[in-house]
Amino acid sequence: MLRRAVLQTFRQGLAQSFFKRYAVSLTETTVTHQPIETSDEAGERTVPTQKTGDESGNTVVVAPPEFRFIYPEFLPDPAMERRNRLREKLERMDMLQRRSVIEIPEFYTGSIMAVTVADANSPNKFARFVGICIQRGGSGLRAWFILRNVVDKQGVEILYEMYCPLIQKIEVLRLERRLDESLLYLRDALPEYSTFPMDMEPERRLNNSVVPINPLKVKLRPRPWLERWERQNLQGVEDLNLPQRFYDRAEKVAKPWEKYDLMLHYRKTIPAEEQEKIFAEVHSQLQQQELKRKLRRRRGSDNEY
Amino acid sequence: MNQADLSKLVSALRIAVKPKPKLLSCPEGPAGRLKKLRATVTALVKYERIELNYPRAEEAQGYAERLISDAIRNGDCHKHTMEMADYWLNEKQLVHKLFKVLVPRYQNYNSSFTRLVLGPKTYPGYYAGTAILELKGNPFPALQPETHNYHFWLHNVLLEEAKKEFRSAREERNAGTTESVTAES
């Protein structure tokens, strides 16, 4: 019997409890909750959308709560000074238009991806890069993600803008999450944690409805580092083994009251009612695109035989 | 350009939230700011109407609304909400009041849960003055008179009609004089 590293599956509760997702520690994730539905499963379910009635009795289509994790770039920048409802609406229209042309799959920080970009200067006119997604950010059409790989003993990071028209193909070779939302510490980690073969094949998922969390703890190289990792409460790093003075200074510099600053959290996020409105707008088109792609894939596999 | 934080779901607040927080000066620095606001929020939940200076009242209003909206959205079995309630309310019997009294009171509200009314400025000058911060639905008499639509009250209807009559009579008189002027010329 082969011994494999145990991949902890990420379970999600019902609509009321989906925010437990980040509050719950690793040991608690083994308690049974209902699994989350990802885009693959959503089309196959009998009732993919949640239809709630409004006052007039008409059904109001509401997107599933997981949409905010799968399509986080549809939510606008929470900074109040930069909000512009009209611009956001136009951006969403453009994003859907782009998504109808190219498939932008569901991915998270820690997923291994391959991106093909049109490049006039390369012999094949296309440049393909495989790497692990260490960070993603931006909102609207400026959404980006950074892929990292070690090529010929040289660490390489490339920032891709998801909606750039030069991008020909985005494939997710391994869909998984890590213990942290940002894997910038891989820059200071041993190179084997960032090395992935350029000819890596897409891996088949064991369980389509649940995105696994990889509980890998990475070993860092000896200091000096690019950032003070001991101050960042990283889950995915092995014990840093620093002298006590580092931890003392981290404690002095820490801002423990920020955990309780309710208005700080409010200004950093979009309220739930607005999120629902945004995803209700876009979700029917996104679902249609998913279905079309699935049919095309099935028809493609049928034509092979 | 930042992505919105997805870890917590918050309800939309129905008060005007300014883009930057007001930094309240205190000897302990940023840690002391939350300590001061904690005392204010505790007092608001305890007494339901407090009089204080405007800058602190404005900040505390936001935190009080957030606390109540979280309590309504998540209920008392939610760990994070309980931690927030435990931090923000210095007296622990007020945590019971929050979940057992305030949440049922504000369950179906479509407006904000607090009201911020400008109070008297006790000394002349260019400063914000005092403010009265209260929870809506409190048992005290109202601070401001209720605004009703008095448009259809009898004396107002009669006054409006009288005004219309006066204006039309004046226009007729003016028209009469200008006609006589044009006729003469």
From TrEMBL, chain A:
It comes from the Eukaryota. The keyword Transit peptide applies. Residues 34-58 are annotated as: Disordered. One of its GO terms (molecular function) is structural constituent of ribosome. One of its GO terms (biological process) is translation. One of its GO terms (cellular component) is mitochondrial large ribosomal subunit. Keywords: Mitochondrion, Ribonucleoprotein, Ribosomal protein, Transit peptide. The keyword Ribosomal protein applies. Pfam families: Ribosomal_L19. Residues 47-58 have a biased composition (Polar residues). It is found in: Mitochondrion. Gene3D superfamilies: 2.30.30.790. Belongs to the bacterial ribosomal protein bL19 family. PANTHER family: LARGE RIBOSOMAL SUBUNIT PROTEIN BL19M (PTHR15680:SF9), RIBOSOMAL PROTEIN L19 (PTHR15680). This is Large ribosomal subunit protein bL19m. It comes from Daphnia sinensis.
TrEMBL record, chain B:
The keyword Ribonucleoprotein applies. One of its GO terms (cellular component) is mitochondrial large ribosomal subunit. Keywords: Ribonucleoprotein, Ribosomal protein. One of its GO terms (biological process) is translation. The keyword Transit peptide does not apply. InterPro entries: Ribosomal_bL17, Ribosomal_bL17_sf. GO terms for molecular function: structural constituent of ribosome. Pfam families: Ribosomal_L17. Belongs to the bacterial ribosomal protein bL17 family. This is Large ribosomal subunit protein bL17m. It comes from Daphnia sinensis. The gene is EOG090X0EUO.
